[in-house]
Amino acid sequence: VAVGGIGVFVVCSPSTSATMSMGQDVTLATSLVVREDSLTLFGFESAQSRDLFEVIQAVNGFGPKLTFTLLSYLSADALRTAIATEDVAKMPRTP
Questions:
Q1: Are the C-beta atoms of residues 19 and 2 closer than 8 Å to each other?
Q2: pLDDT value, residue 29
Q3: d(C-alpha 10, C-alpha 3), whole Å
Q4: Which of 39, 66, 87, 92 is deepest in the core (most CB within 10 A)?
């Protein structure tokens, strides 16, 4: 993604990437994860998905990669419903 003439690598889900085309303007809700050895920018198609990502990845045992994978295979609404109803069967379906 080019931002103000600077190229930035943004990790996006396959479904989010599929909606983009080269040269097209795009708006992404992003979350920057800062680690000792890396800076990773995650991109989401909605602020709702980004906000859920930030909440879940803060839970013990759920890092940013696992949380991003969950949100790549389940919509924010589906994941929120699975958590609220304690439907753990949906979780193992994600890689």
A1: no
A2: 93
A3: 11
A4: 66
Q: Which residues pair with 41 in a beta bridge?
A: 32
Mean pLDDT of the chain: 85
C-alpha R_g of the chain? 14
Rounded Cα gap, residues 3 and 38, in angstroms: 20
pTM of this prediction? 0.79
> Based on the number of CB atoms within 10 Å of its own CB, is 7 exposed (0-12), middle (13-18) or buried (19 or more)?
exposed
Q: How many other CB atoms are found less than 10 A from the CB of residue 25?
A: 5
> What is the pLDDT averaged over residues 61-78?
85
